[in-house]
Every structure is written in structure tokens, then in C-alpha cells.
């Protein structure tokens, strides 16, 4: 495990979605739709990371990790955002795509938090 073991306490910062609701004029339906879209896309985003690493495609991996980091930030998925940021830094430190396989443990760690994040989002904001 990385330095993000504290992610097991709370995977979602609920204040982020409260702020989003305020930003959209208090419309909870918009927030719920946003969360549902994130939840639906999350497994695909993580699978995309695996695929990019398996194919040693640094450009695709960077695009995938930035998508995961940004979308996770927007719904308050704090653990996944932190892990994606750590993965992004790891990618930037590589000298080339042929070293991407070294980052597979970080993607596996992201995998470990997907179900819990989805559960917390669905139970709190559906």
C-alpha cells in the first residue's frame, strides 16, 4: 500500500457535492445525474488505465489518468483523486512508455478503492 492508507476511512468528501449542488442552484437532480455518470464511467476509466499500461502507451495512460483524477476531484472521490495524482507523477518521472509496467501496482491500488468509492457515492447521493 502507498501513503494513502487513510483512504479506508472516507473515500468521498461529501462537502464537494454539497458545493456542486450550491453551484447548480440547489438542484439535487443535477448532482445525482453527475454522480450516476461518474459511477457508470469509473470502471471504464480504470480499465482504460490498465489497457494503456498493458500496451505501454504513455500518451493514452496520461490521458486516462488525467480523466480519472479530474472526474474524481469533481465528485469528491478523494482517495481516487490522490492515487491518480500519484500515478500521474509516476508517469511524468518515466523516461519512456516502456517503463509503464512499473506503475501497475499503483493502478492495482486504484482498483482496490473503486468498489468502496462507488458504494459511498451511491449510498449518499442517489
TrEMBL record:
Residues 35-111 form the HPt domain. Pfam families: Hpt. One of its GO terms (biological process) is phosphorelay signal transduction system. This is Hpt domain-containing protein. It comes from Paenarthrobacter ureafaciens. The lineage of its organism: Bacteria, Bacillati, Actinomycetota, Actinomycetes, Micrococcales.
Amino acid at each position: 500500500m502507498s501513503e494513502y492508507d487513510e483512504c479506508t476511512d472516507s473515500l468521498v468528501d461529501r462537502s464537494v457535492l454539497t458545493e456542486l449542488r450550491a453551484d447548480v442552484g440547489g438542484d439535487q437532480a443535477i448532482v445525482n445525474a453527475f454522480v450516476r455518470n461518474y459511477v457508470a464511467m469509473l470502471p471504464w476509466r480504470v480499465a482504460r488505465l490498465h489497457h494503456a499500461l498493458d500496451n505501454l502507451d504513455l500518451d493514452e495512460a496520461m490521458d486516462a489518468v488525467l480523466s480519472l483524477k479530474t472526474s474524481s476531484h469533481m465528485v469528491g472521490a478523494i482517495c481516487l483523486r490522490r492515487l491518480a495524482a500519484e500515478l500521474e507523477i509516476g508517469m511524468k518521472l518515466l523516461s519512456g512508455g516502456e517503463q509503464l509496467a512499473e506503475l501497475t501496482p499503483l493502478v492495482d491500488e486504484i482498483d482496490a478503492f473503486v468498489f468502496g468509492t462507488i458504494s459511498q457515492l451511491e449510498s449518499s447521493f442517489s
